[in-house]
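Exercise 3.2. Students should predict the tertiary structure of the chain below and write it as structure tokens, then compare their answer with the key that follows.

Predict this chain's 3D structure.
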Amino acid sequence: MSKNRSSENGIRVVAQNRKARYEYEIVEVLEAGMVLLGTEVKSLREGRANLKDSYAKVKKGEIFLYGLHISPYSHASYDNHEPERVRKLLLHQEEIKRLVGKTQERGFSLIPLKIYFKQGKAKIELALARGKKLYDKRESLKRKEEARDLERLRKRHKIS
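Answer key:
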């Protein structure tokens, strides 16, 4: 599976947080821009990013992304970026106000789901999520396995 996946609507996914949908119950998804340095953009275009253990936090009326690892650009000399620096996210003021209210409720977090390029600009898909309990995780795994078995049976009976 290639990191530079392209879809029909001009979106190229750079990195995904696959564990997020397993660990969290996604309540709402929104798109945000990111304030990046030049070497960070070049490194993202190479697909060198890791969303694992990253999260967003509201601070002084702005949203910042913590824990996102963008590897240093290989062809930069002295002016390279810090791999895990705090990055500002770009959202409309109304969205930020709404997210402030939601994140102050008990149990809600802002989790990045994926980083992608849309019309040449780096975007991040941010989810308002609530952590799952262990029994919720088991239930979702059980549902996923049942769906897979059902699909297998459908294919088998269609061919036979």
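Discussion points: The first helix runs from residue 20 to 23. The first strand starts at residue 5 and ends at 6.
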